[in-house]
Design a protein that fits this description.
161 residues; alpha+beta; four-stranded antiparallel beta sheet; two-stranded antiparallel ribbon; 8 helices
Length: 161
């Protein structure tokens, strides 16, 4: 089964989706020291994976899920995703290859930001890590792109990260 089959006509997908949405799929696995996402070649229904995740492990700590974008999302402003606006305000390695992703043709982030969102997507954490002040700010639906830019400017000037 591919994402396009699950997406249905006209549905867009969030690469930082809910694990428990009926259509949810595993986008990738968080791996390595930095916890970057390694994308799966093909989507796996979340319902097939969640039962095997140990009960004491938050699924979003080890997996990234994709689900349909919904109109009542806290990160939504009209048709735009404010989360990807904040994500693209963070630094990206311009030399990084854009990861292969089965979600791209239906991805809200891709449609809104193109390669800028894709370059940063592997670093996005659904579960926040203690002490990650930038991650907390980016995830905050009330934060603006300008606030992220200001934080980045302050951090670049020697402020604690």
């Amino acid at each position: 089964m591919n994402t396009a089959d699950r997406a249905g006509t006209g549905r867009t997908w969030c690469p930082s989706g809910k694990a428990d949405a009926p259509e949810s799929v595993v986008l990738g696995v968080r791996s390595g020291q930095g916890g970057e996402v390694v994308y799966l070649a093909d989507p796996v229904p979340a319902g097939d994976v969640l039962p095997v995740v140990p009960k004491d492990v938050e699924p979003t700590r080890v997996l990234r899920f994709a689900s349909h974008c919904v109109s009542n999302c806290l990160h939504r402003r009209g048709n735009d995703c404010t989360l990807v606006e904040r994500v693209t305000a963070t630094p990206a390695d311009e030399n990084r290859n854009v990861p292969r992703c089965h979600l791209r043709s239906h991805c809200t982030w891709w449609a809104q930001t193109g390669v800028d969102g894709c370059r940063r997507c592997p670093a996005v954490a659904t579960t926040l890590v203690e002490g990650d002040d930038l991650g907390v700010l980016v995830a905050d639906p009330t934060a603006t792109r300008e606030q992220v830019d200001a934080w980045m400017a302050q951090a670049g000037a020697g402020a604690p990260a």
